[in-house]
Amino acid sequence: MLELLTGKSPGDTTNGLDLPQWVASVVQEEWTNEVFDLELMKDAAAGSETGEELVKTLKLALHCVDPSPPARPEAQQVLRQAA
Question: Which structural domain, as residue segments, surrounds residue 13?
Fold first, then answer.
């Protein structure tokens, strides 16, 4: 999900951080819009609901890559939250 939202490869590093670390740091700084792929942002500009859905999906994606494996949601939980 992070790859789709950001348009970046998981092997890419930004400021020495891997993709999940970079996204988490940007979100922590409340620069969430800086994370999203430009094409997604063009679509989101058309309506606020799309922007809210992107942020919701980003939070879910970050939950899925939590550094602590037991804290990560199970697939069933992800499916329910994504619906």
Answer: 2-82
